[in-house]
Amino acid sequence: MDDDPASHPPLPPSVGENIGTISEFYARHEQHVSATQRIVEKVALFLGSPSYVAANILFIVFWIVGNLMAPDMGWDQVDEPPFFWLQGFVSLNAFIISTTVLIRQNRMSTLADHHAHLDLQVNLLTEEKTSKIIEMLEALRRDLPGVRQQQDPEAEELAKPADPEEVLAAIEREHDEPYGEAGNSALKRQPDSE
What we know:
Blueprint: H1 13-31, H2 35-47, H3 50-73, H4 84-143, H5 153-159, H6 164-176, H7 180-189
């Protein structure tokens, strides 16, 4: 592939603005990350790497083999089977890994919440714009003398903007009834098994 920027067609200005807005969003988010958080995230990235897993496996194998072969070599066993010291090291390692991953996941979850909120706002705005465009097209169709006048119930319905509060209320009603109306009515029709 050709990575020369001059060979790519220029982006439309609106796309460039959107990319800039997204970059600013991430830059603002990164500014609020503390130094401790950055260190913990770097540790989490290291602890989640394949090389760290491989190093752990090698350490465990050498620990077990070394302790099993120590008496044959004339050395003292540091950790006799069932390897209580090794179990402690592995447990401590698991605690550190899980804690650092949870700390990183909490920040990623916050970022994902911001994304979801932004997506919701953009979707609501898009829905309003789409309804307005359909409404304007229907008005234009009615006003044009050469266009046959016909009733289009679907277009009329789509031209009405959705009420976000009513949609949210419907979602909450559906959430309160785990099976929905169809599922609840089917459950009511089922005979008792007794």
